[in-house]
Design brief:
It is a single chain. With about 325 residues, the chain is of the alpha/beta class. The chain contains 15 helices and five strands. It has a five-stranded parallel sheet, with helices on both faces. The radius of gyration is 26 Å and the shape is elongated.
Length: about 325
Protein backbone atom coordinates (compact mmCIF):
# COMPACT_ATOMS: atom_id res chain seq x y z
CA UNK A 1 0.00 0.00 0.00
CA UNK A 2 1.59 3.26 -1.08
CA UNK A 3 1.97 5.77 1.76
CA UNK A 4 -1.11 7.93 1.88
CA UNK A 5 -3.39 9.53 4.41
CA UNK A 6 -6.79 7.93 4.71
CA UNK A 7 -9.78 9.94 5.80
CA UNK A 8 -11.33 8.87 9.08
CA UNK A 9 -14.58 8.71 7.12
CA UNK A 10 -13.22 6.06 4.75
CA UNK A 11 -14.58 3.05 6.64
CA UNK A 12 -13.56 0.70 3.83
CA UNK A 13 -9.94 1.79 3.78
CA UNK A 14 -7.64 -1.23 3.24
CA UNK A 15 -6.40 -1.00 6.84
CA UNK A 16 -8.01 0.52 9.93
CA UNK A 17 -5.87 0.95 13.02
CA UNK A 18 -7.81 1.34 16.30
CA UNK A 19 -5.43 2.42 19.05
CA UNK A 20 -6.19 2.53 22.75
CA UNK A 21 -7.56 0.55 25.68
CA UNK A 22 -11.19 1.68 25.86
CA UNK A 23 -13.13 -1.49 25.05
CA UNK A 24 -16.34 0.25 24.01
CA UNK A 25 -14.54 2.51 21.53
CA UNK A 26 -12.54 -0.39 20.13
CA UNK A 27 -15.72 -2.43 19.64
CA UNK A 28 -17.42 0.52 17.97
CA UNK A 29 -14.49 0.98 15.60
CA UNK A 30 -14.93 -2.66 14.54
CA UNK A 31 -18.71 -2.40 14.28
CA UNK A 32 -18.52 0.66 12.04
CA UNK A 33 -16.19 -1.06 9.59
CA UNK A 34 -18.26 -4.24 9.55
CA UNK A 35 -21.48 -2.26 8.99
CA UNK A 36 -19.93 -0.37 6.08
CA UNK A 37 -18.61 -3.58 4.52
CA UNK A 38 -21.99 -5.30 4.79
CA UNK A 39 -23.70 -2.24 3.34
CA UNK A 40 -21.44 -2.67 0.32
CA UNK A 41 -21.82 -6.45 0.27
CA UNK A 42 -24.37 -8.19 2.47
CA UNK A 43 -22.39 -11.45 2.20
CA UNK A 44 -19.21 -9.97 3.67
CA UNK A 45 -17.20 -12.60 5.55
CA UNK A 46 -16.09 -11.31 8.97
CA UNK A 47 -13.29 -13.01 10.88
CA UNK A 48 -12.58 -11.82 14.45
CA UNK A 49 -9.23 -13.14 15.64
CA UNK A 50 -6.99 -12.92 18.69
CA UNK A 51 -3.22 -13.50 18.85
CA UNK A 52 -3.73 -17.16 19.75
CA UNK A 53 -5.77 -17.71 16.58
CA UNK A 54 -3.53 -15.77 14.21
CA UNK A 55 -0.56 -18.07 13.89
CA UNK A 56 2.18 -17.79 11.24
CA UNK A 57 0.61 -18.64 7.89
CA UNK A 58 -2.96 -17.89 8.99
CA UNK A 59 -3.01 -14.41 7.45
CA UNK A 60 -1.85 -15.73 4.08
CA UNK A 61 -4.61 -18.33 4.18
CA UNK A 62 -7.29 -15.78 5.08
CA UNK A 63 -6.20 -13.31 2.41
CA UNK A 64 -5.79 -15.80 -0.40
CA UNK A 65 -7.86 -14.92 -3.50
CA UNK A 66 -11.38 -16.34 -3.61
CA UNK A 67 -13.12 -17.71 -6.68
CA UNK A 68 -16.15 -15.61 -5.76
CA UNK A 69 -14.15 -12.44 -4.98
CA UNK A 70 -16.06 -12.06 -1.72
CA UNK A 71 -15.48 -9.09 0.53
CA UNK A 72 -13.80 -9.84 3.86
CA UNK A 73 -13.20 -7.99 7.10
CA UNK A 74 -10.33 -9.37 9.16
CA UNK A 75 -10.31 -8.11 12.75
CA UNK A 76 -7.11 -8.65 14.70
CA UNK A 77 -7.47 -7.96 18.43
CA UNK A 78 -4.61 -7.25 20.83
CA UNK A 79 -2.24 -6.82 17.90
CA UNK A 80 0.51 -5.81 20.31
CA UNK A 81 0.58 -9.42 21.55
CA UNK A 82 1.11 -11.07 18.16
CA UNK A 83 4.17 -13.25 17.62
CA UNK A 84 7.18 -11.82 15.82
CA UNK A 85 6.57 -14.06 12.78
CA UNK A 86 2.92 -13.00 12.49
CA UNK A 87 3.86 -9.33 12.81
CA UNK A 88 6.34 -9.84 10.00
CA UNK A 89 3.58 -11.31 7.80
CA UNK A 90 1.23 -8.41 8.54
CA UNK A 91 3.93 -5.87 7.72
CA UNK A 92 4.46 -7.58 4.37
CA UNK A 93 0.69 -7.55 3.73
CA UNK A 94 0.55 -3.80 4.43
CA UNK A 95 2.71 -3.22 1.36
CA UNK A 96 0.18 -4.86 -0.96
CA UNK A 97 -3.31 -5.24 0.58
CA UNK A 98 -6.13 -6.86 -1.39
CA UNK A 99 -8.89 -4.64 -2.69
CA UNK A 100 -11.80 -6.67 -1.31
CA UNK A 101 -10.27 -7.17 2.15
CA UNK A 102 -10.41 -4.71 5.04
CA UNK A 103 -7.93 -5.37 7.81
CA UNK A 104 -8.77 -3.94 11.27
CA UNK A 105 -5.90 -3.91 13.75
CA UNK A 106 -6.74 -3.28 17.40
CA UNK A 107 -3.64 -2.15 19.26
CA UNK A 108 -3.37 -1.03 22.89
CA UNK A 109 -0.72 1.55 22.06
CA UNK A 110 2.45 1.89 24.06
CA UNK A 111 5.83 0.29 23.52
CA UNK A 112 4.81 -3.34 23.10
CA UNK A 113 4.31 -4.16 19.43
CA UNK A 114 5.21 -0.60 18.45
CA UNK A 115 6.91 -1.80 15.29
CA UNK A 116 3.56 -2.96 13.87
CA UNK A 117 1.92 0.27 14.96
CA UNK A 118 4.55 2.35 13.19
CA UNK A 119 4.40 0.20 10.06
CA UNK A 120 0.61 0.55 9.77
CA UNK A 121 0.83 4.30 10.19
CA UNK A 122 3.61 4.58 7.65
CA UNK A 123 1.51 2.57 5.20
CA UNK A 124 -1.30 5.13 5.53
CA UNK A 125 -3.75 3.18 7.65
CA UNK A 126 -6.94 4.89 8.69
CA UNK A 127 -6.53 5.49 12.42
CA UNK A 128 -9.17 5.66 15.15
CA UNK A 129 -8.22 6.84 18.63
CA UNK A 130 -9.74 4.75 21.44
CA UNK A 131 -8.10 6.17 24.58
CA UNK A 132 -9.08 5.07 28.06
CA UNK A 133 -11.13 7.79 29.72
CA UNK A 134 -9.59 8.60 33.09
CA UNK A 135 -10.95 12.07 33.87
CA UNK A 136 -14.50 13.04 34.89
CA UNK A 137 -14.50 15.80 32.26
CA UNK A 138 -13.77 13.24 29.54
CA UNK A 139 -16.68 11.06 30.66
CA UNK A 140 -18.92 14.12 30.72
CA UNK A 141 -17.90 14.96 27.16
CA UNK A 142 -18.59 11.36 26.13
CA UNK A 143 -22.13 11.50 27.57
CA UNK A 144 -22.88 14.79 25.82
CA UNK A 145 -21.67 13.38 22.52
CA UNK A 146 -23.64 10.20 23.10
CA UNK A 147 -26.93 12.07 23.48
CA UNK A 148 -26.04 14.21 20.47
CA UNK A 149 -25.34 11.13 18.33
CA UNK A 150 -28.69 9.71 19.41
CA UNK A 151 -30.38 12.90 18.23
CA UNK A 152 -31.55 13.92 21.68
CA UNK A 153 -31.18 16.95 23.90
CA UNK A 154 -29.96 16.58 27.48
CA UNK A 155 -29.24 19.41 29.90
CA UNK A 156 -25.69 19.84 31.26
CA UNK A 157 -27.04 18.94 34.72
CA UNK A 158 -28.55 15.73 33.36
CA UNK A 159 -25.27 14.72 31.73
CA UNK A 160 -23.40 15.37 34.96
CA UNK A 161 -25.99 13.48 37.00
CA UNK A 162 -25.64 10.49 34.71
CA UNK A 163 -21.85 10.46 35.10
CA UNK A 164 -22.23 10.77 38.88
CA UNK A 165 -24.71 7.91 38.91
CA UNK A 166 -23.03 5.45 36.57
CA UNK A 167 -19.34 6.07 37.17
CA UNK A 168 -16.44 5.42 34.81
CA UNK A 169 -17.69 2.54 32.64
CA UNK A 170 -18.33 3.96 29.16
CA UNK A 171 -20.32 0.91 28.14
CA UNK A 172 -22.75 1.47 31.02
CA UNK A 173 -22.90 5.20 30.31
CA UNK A 174 -23.74 4.51 26.67
CA UNK A 175 -26.37 1.98 27.67
CA UNK A 176 -27.95 4.43 30.12
CA UNK A 177 -28.05 7.20 27.52
CA UNK A 178 -29.67 4.80 25.05
CA UNK A 179 -32.26 3.70 27.61
CA UNK A 180 -33.18 7.28 28.52
CA UNK A 181 -33.44 8.20 24.86
CA UNK A 182 -35.77 5.27 24.20
CA UNK A 183 -37.95 5.80 27.28
CA UNK A 184 -38.22 9.57 27.60
CA UNK A 185 -39.69 12.16 25.25
CA UNK A 186 -38.41 15.71 25.05
CA UNK A 187 -35.36 17.12 26.77
CA UNK A 188 -33.72 14.85 29.31
CA UNK A 189 -33.10 16.72 32.55
CA UNK A 190 -31.55 16.02 35.95
CA UNK A 191 -34.84 14.98 37.53
CA UNK A 192 -35.36 12.27 34.89
CA UNK A 193 -31.86 10.89 35.42
CA UNK A 194 -32.47 10.90 39.16
CA UNK A 195 -35.66 8.87 38.79
CA UNK A 196 -33.89 6.23 36.75
CA UNK A 197 -30.59 5.94 38.56
CA UNK A 198 -30.95 7.22 42.10
CA UNK A 199 -30.76 3.65 43.41
CA UNK A 200 -27.07 3.38 42.60
CA UNK A 201 -24.87 3.40 45.69
CA UNK A 202 -22.51 6.12 44.52
CA UNK A 203 -25.30 8.27 43.15
CA UNK A 204 -27.41 7.85 46.26
CA UNK A 205 -24.65 8.83 48.67
CA UNK A 206 -23.71 11.93 46.70
CA UNK A 207 -27.38 12.80 46.23
CA UNK A 208 -27.73 12.90 50.02
CA UNK A 209 -24.62 15.06 50.33
CA UNK A 210 -25.67 17.47 47.57
CA UNK A 211 -29.06 18.08 49.16
CA UNK A 212 -27.53 18.54 52.60
CA UNK A 213 -24.85 21.07 51.60
CA UNK A 214 -27.51 23.00 49.68
CA UNK A 215 -29.47 23.37 52.92
CA UNK A 216 -32.38 21.20 51.73
CA UNK A 217 -32.81 19.17 54.91
CA UNK A 218 -36.13 17.49 54.08
CA UNK A 219 -34.96 16.35 50.66
CA UNK A 220 -31.63 15.20 52.09
CA UNK A 221 -33.39 13.10 54.72
CA UNK A 222 -35.67 11.59 52.09
CA UNK A 223 -32.64 10.72 49.95
CA UNK A 224 -30.90 9.29 53.01
CA UNK A 225 -33.78 6.96 53.86
CA UNK A 226 -34.01 5.82 50.25
CA UNK A 227 -30.28 5.14 50.16
CA UNK A 228 -30.34 3.10 53.35
CA UNK A 229 -33.40 1.16 52.20
CA UNK A 230 -31.62 0.17 48.98
CA UNK A 231 -28.57 -1.09 50.83
CA UNK A 232 -26.11 1.80 50.41
CA UNK A 233 -23.36 1.37 53.04
CA UNK A 234 -23.46 4.08 55.71
CA UNK A 235 -19.75 4.74 55.34
CA UNK A 236 -20.30 5.81 51.72
CA UNK A 237 -22.78 8.41 52.89
CA UNK A 238 -20.53 9.89 55.58
CA UNK A 239 -17.69 9.94 53.05
CA UNK A 240 -19.85 11.82 50.53
CA UNK A 241 -20.94 14.30 53.22
CA UNK A 242 -17.34 14.91 54.23
CA UNK A 243 -16.28 15.43 50.60
CA UNK A 244 -19.13 17.86 50.01
CA UNK A 245 -18.36 20.01 53.06
CA UNK A 246 -14.60 19.96 52.48
CA UNK A 247 -15.07 21.04 48.87
CA UNK A 248 -17.06 24.07 50.05
CA UNK A 249 -14.41 24.90 52.64
CA UNK A 250 -11.58 24.64 50.12
CA UNK A 251 -13.32 26.74 47.48
CA UNK A 252 -14.50 29.42 49.93
CA UNK A 253 -10.92 29.97 51.11
CA UNK A 254 -9.41 29.94 47.62
CA UNK A 255 -8.59 32.99 45.57
CA UNK A 256 -11.03 33.91 42.84
CA UNK A 257 -10.33 32.87 39.29
CA UNK A 258 -11.44 30.78 36.37
CA UNK A 259 -12.69 27.24 37.05
CA UNK A 260 -9.69 25.75 35.22
CA UNK A 261 -7.24 27.71 37.40
CA UNK A 262 -9.09 26.84 40.61
CA UNK A 263 -9.32 23.21 39.52
CA UNK A 264 -5.53 22.99 39.31
CA UNK A 265 -5.09 24.80 42.63
CA UNK A 266 -7.63 22.72 44.56
CA UNK A 267 -7.28 19.39 42.79
CA UNK A 268 -10.90 19.35 41.56
CA UNK A 269 -12.23 18.93 38.02
CA UNK A 270 -13.54 22.22 36.52
CA UNK A 271 -17.14 20.97 36.41
CA UNK A 272 -17.04 20.44 40.18
CA UNK A 273 -15.82 24.00 40.76
CA UNK A 274 -18.97 25.30 39.07
CA UNK A 275 -21.21 23.00 41.09
CA UNK A 276 -19.58 23.81 44.44
CA UNK A 277 -19.81 27.54 43.68
CA UNK A 278 -23.57 27.16 43.45
CA UNK A 279 -23.73 25.07 46.61
CA UNK A 280 -21.59 27.33 48.81
CA UNK A 281 -24.09 30.20 48.93
CA UNK A 282 -25.02 30.71 52.56
CA UNK A 283 -21.98 28.97 53.97
CA UNK A 284 -19.67 30.64 56.49
CA UNK A 285 -16.34 29.45 57.95
CA UNK A 286 -18.17 28.66 61.21
CA UNK A 287 -20.74 26.67 59.27
CA UNK A 288 -18.03 24.59 57.62
CA UNK A 289 -16.44 23.85 61.02
CA UNK A 290 -19.78 22.84 62.55
CA UNK A 291 -20.62 20.60 59.58
CA UNK A 292 -17.25 18.86 59.62
CA UNK A 293 -17.59 18.11 63.35
CA UNK A 294 -21.07 16.71 62.78
CA UNK A 295 -19.86 14.48 59.94
CA UNK A 296 -16.90 13.27 62.04
CA UNK A 297 -19.27 12.30 64.84
CA UNK A 298 -21.52 10.46 62.40
CA UNK A 299 -18.54 8.66 60.89
CA UNK A 300 -17.54 7.43 64.34
CA UNK A 301 -21.12 6.38 64.98
CA UNK A 302 -21.49 4.30 61.83
CA UNK A 303 -18.13 2.63 62.39
CA UNK A 304 -19.12 1.19 65.74
CA UNK A 305 -18.92 4.13 68.09
CA UNK A 306 -22.70 4.49 68.47
CA UNK A 307 -25.78 2.35 69.03
CA UNK A 308 -27.84 3.64 66.09
CA UNK A 309 -25.94 4.34 62.82
CA UNK A 310 -29.09 5.51 61.04
CA UNK A 311 -29.82 8.10 63.70
CA UNK A 312 -26.21 9.25 63.56
CA UNK A 313 -26.56 9.81 59.82
CA UNK A 314 -29.87 11.64 60.16
CA UNK A 315 -28.39 13.89 62.82
CA UNK A 316 -25.39 14.69 60.60
CA UNK A 317 -27.56 15.42 57.56
CA UNK A 318 -29.69 17.88 59.53
CA UNK A 319 -26.60 19.51 61.04
CA UNK A 320 -24.99 19.97 57.62
CA UNK A 321 -28.19 21.40 56.13
CA UNK A 322 -28.50 23.87 59.04
CA UNK A 323 -24.85 24.88 58.73
CA UNK A 324 -25.50 25.66 55.06
CA UNK A 325 -28.12 28.21 56.08
CA UNK A 326 -26.27 30.15 58.79
CA UNK A 327 -25.92 33.22 56.57
CA UNK A 328 -29.49 33.14 55.24
Amino acid sequence: MAPRKNSTDDLLAPVTLAVGQEDLLLDRAVQQVVAAARAADADTDVRDLGPEQLQPGTLAELTSPSLFAERKVLVVRNAQDLSADTIKEIKAYLDAPFEEITLVLLHAGGVKGKGLLDAARKAGAREVACPKTTKPAERLTFVRQEFRSLGRSATPEACQALVDAIGSDLRELASAASQLTADVEGTIDEAIVGRYYTGRAEASSFNVADRAVEGRAAEALEALRWSLSTGVPAVLITSALAQGVRAIGKLSSARGGRPADLARELGMPPWKIDRVRQQMRGWTPDGVSLALRAVAEADAGVKGGGDDPEYALEKAVVAVARAARLRR
